[in-house]
Amino acid sequence: MSLSIKNADEIIKKLGQVIYVAGTQWGDEGKGKLVDILSSQYDITARSAGGANAGHTICVNRNGKTEKFVFHLIPSGILHEGKMCVIGNGTVIHIPTLFEEIESLKEQGIEVNDKLMISDRAHLIFNYHKLIDGIQEERKGDQKVGTTKRGIGPAYCDKASRIGLRVGDLDDFNRFAAQLRENAERHMKAYHFEFDIESEINYYRDVAELIAPYVFNTTAFINKAYHEGKTILIEGAQGAHLDLDLGTYPYVTSSNTTSAGACTGLGLAPTRVNSVVGIVKAYTTRVGDGPFPTELADMEGEMLREQGGEYGATTGRPRRCGWFDATVVNNAIDINGVNSICLTKLDVLTGFQTIKIGTHYELDGEKISYIPANLTDFQRVKVVYEEMPGWTEDLTQTESFDALPEKCRNYVLRLEELSGVPINFIGVGVHRNQIIYR
Ligand code: GDP
Ligand code: IMO
Ligand code: MG
Description:
Bound molecules: guanosine-5'-diphosphate, 6-O-phosphoryl inosine monophosphate, magnesium ion
Helix content: 25-40%
Radius of gyration: 22 Å
CATH class of the largest domain: Alpha Beta
């Protein structure tokens, strides 16, 4: 646990040329904020998986006031001049949503033009994928996943079925239109919905020219940049426990949200990733359905939600809140290879008389340090808690670890001890400046 980072200038020296920023819980850990901070140092910021199901929030001072940005698909490095942003081959893209995001950035005075590259291999989300997402959820009834209804699962399903359409397919429009028509007809039959195929095809005919300037072989670009010594920051979306293979299946998203997925999602080899920074919220949240052992369905949960502003950045849904769960985080550390932690939202815990930490689980009276694959077993685990005294001081102006109240420092040190990974960054507010280096 020797790694220490004293300021922004030390980031690359300590973390290396290529890093992955990983969510370690169920998403919304505060990845966007750290990516914005780190991307001031990195030449390229890249998204590797997921789509507009993500919502990454950044608050910065511009023109004398605090401005909020919420990124869904565009990498959170876009606010920095002279840096490149890449949307990699592992992502799924709904072009109308992407253009909306580009437009809304423009309205906030940010031009993406020469800064954004989209992989020709990224798969497209069509409007029928969004409809299917809704129909599948409805059919599942009380077994629903609680998806963002952005069409993510159905688009990845077409990809895995080898009928998906990719951004680069727009180059051969006749073939593109024929496949789109065939796919739409197939889905309409299977899911019994009406869909205006021709207007969808016409939209893409019009849009092909507009998207073309952004489309590249981003794998070739990233690897060339790597050989030239450029620095690369991969921005994770979602969190480890939403990973399709390793998360709380079936209550997961449809991509690999861990560091291995970041490599396939960009075409960058695992041996080239130097560090994985795990974003760890100082408590736990989850939006959507699925198991959540440390969830608080009481006043304390409500207090976390209100103090933490825990409402979804994509759907506005209230997030479920609970205590810190060391088993969840430690599992994410292992499957991602996390070697540095950014602890976020520590300020939100101010005012709790005592704070609980779920240190481990017991299943049938045995201590376990893994997450059972079988959700019935997972729902049966007994969380073993320890309690720590809380603090009342406001943390939002604190600039160093030593200046934090002692009880708060003890909480951080205990989390560090439980994880065995250095906590190098501590978030004490929404703003870009509200970060402690350590
Ligand atoms: P992401 O999806 O992981 O990027 O996280 P979201 O943006 O969905 O949710 C994190 C929320 O917490 C956003 O509203 C951020 O502005 C906010 N946030 C991030 N870091 C901190 C922090 O250290 N303290 C507080 N109070 N809010 C934070
Ligand atoms: P960021 O990047 C939190 C959740 C949904 C649902 C499940 C599947 O902001 O951390 P999907 O639409 O992907 O098929 O939904 O995954 N989910 C997220 N939860 N943060 C996210 O992204 C999420 N992206 C998807 O709520 O439970
Ligand atoms: Mg989010």
